[in-house]
Design goal:
single chain, alpha+beta, Beta-Lactamase, Heat Shock Protein 90, 3 domains, seven-stranded antiparallel beta sheet, five-stranded mixed beta sheet, 12 helices, 50% helix, 24% strand, elongated, Sensor histidine kinase, PAS-like_dom_sf, protein dimerization activity, phosphorelay sensor kinase activity
Length: 351
């Protein structure tokens, strides 16, 4: 009874299964194959059955980085749960598949059933995962280096210049000839300017307020600097309670907002800028809105000049968010970022 029930079930699996299944005789010749073999290898069943062996299109088992070509291995191979082999596609390219084999008992023919699964989609997913991990690692390394250099500028070079200014102030109080005194004043003013530039560069590299106080306070500080530098009135609206988020989220939002603001200042020809930030229903929303000249987004993408836009998108992706850009000539530009939040305790423990 069980055998009668299982036979049609096996036929359905054989006929409609997504994995390719081939049945080999004791010489390795394909005596049957399901339709999925064509999707996998490009060979139709008529070309394979009783005409080819699996060894004809097999380029060996994979062994770590290299592979071993096995002559007629399928004639002696017993049941194996999972291993990788390289197959030759009908179009000429070689690709990897996952294989498993089952040897039927002699009273059932002694045939070898080989199940082949396409690994290309899995490999693509693995590659995407590795690329994401590498991108995340690169951004974290970059931010870490920014933080280190910023601290060295502030605590090292900045303090040295400050000490020089103090020394020059002391010398300036001494009785000096007018020419010498004016020279000291000039040198002191240059040192003050150098200290200001060092502090400016230090903040640009990695604002300490981002680590100490979080995204919104760091953004407010940057807005003040931005207004002094570009003369653009910037309005920030924050909806909801201000609080800390994960370091990766805060860094990504800050860098995206910083990039969007600087792009607007450089290219949009504006005198005002609006920024909106809110948290609602476990979703963060950030928008940078200008009413400037705008641009043709498709043209920018095609020309390959949108590196800043690409960087913003990648940063959003790495924190599980999405970035949307709407723009048009003389219609301004709006950059929106949506970031879903995880569990509350995860957000808190990230700091």
């Amino acid at each position: 009874m069980r055998q009668k029930t299982s036979e049609p079930l096996f036929k359905d699996i054989f006929q409609y299964g997504s994995d390719a299944i081939v049945i080999l005789d004791d010489k390795g010749i394909i005596i049957d194959a399901n339709p999925s073999i064509e999707m996998l290898t490009g060979y139709c069943t008529e070309e394979l059955i009783h005409k080819m062996s699996l060894c004809d299109i097999c380029h060996g088992m994979e062994r770590c980085a290299d592979f071993t070509v096995c002559i007629n291995c399928f004639t002696t191979l017993e049941s194996m749960s999972s291993f990788k082999i390289r197959l030759l596609h009908r179009k000429g390219h070689i690709f990897s598949v996952s294989a498993s084999t089952t040897r039927l008992p002699q009273n059932a023919g002694g045939f070898l059933i080989v199940v082949l699964r396409d690994m290309s989609e899995y490999n693509k997913q693995d590659q995407k995962y590795v690329q994401k991990k590498m991108a995340n690692y690169m951004i974290q390394a970059q931010e870490g280096e920014r933080k280190r250099v910023s601290r060295e500028l502030h605590d090292g070079v900045g303090q040295t210049i400050y000490s020089m200014i103090v020394g020059l102030n002391i010398i300036e109080q001494m009785e000096l000839e007018n020419d010498l005194k004016s020279h000291f004043q000039l040198v002191r003013d240059m040192a003050v300017q150098a200290l200001s530039e060092v502090r400016h560069i230090s903040v640009d590299l990695r604002p300490s307020s981002l680590d100490d106080w979080g995204f919104v306070p760091a953004l407010r500080s940057f807005i003040k600097q931005f207004e002094r530098t570009y003369g653009i009135v910037t309005r920030l609206s924050v909806v909801g309670q201000e609080r800390r988020y994960g370091a990766s989220i805060e860094t990504a939002l800050y860098r995206i907002c910083q990039e969007a603001m600087i792009n607007a200042a450089k290219y949009a020809n504006i005198d005002t800028l609006e920024i909106h930030f809110e948290e609602q229903d476990q979703l963060l929303y950030l928008a940078v809105i200008d009413l400037g000249r705008g641009f043709n987004l498709e043209k920018i993408e095609v020309m390959g000049t949108g590196l800043g836009l690409y960087g913003m998108r990648e940063r959003a992706k790495l924190i599980g968010g999405t970035l949307k850009i709407t723009s048009g000539c003389d219609h301004g530009t709006t950059i929106r970022v949506y970031v879903p939040l995880g569990k509350e305790e995860e957000i808190i423990h990230d700091h």
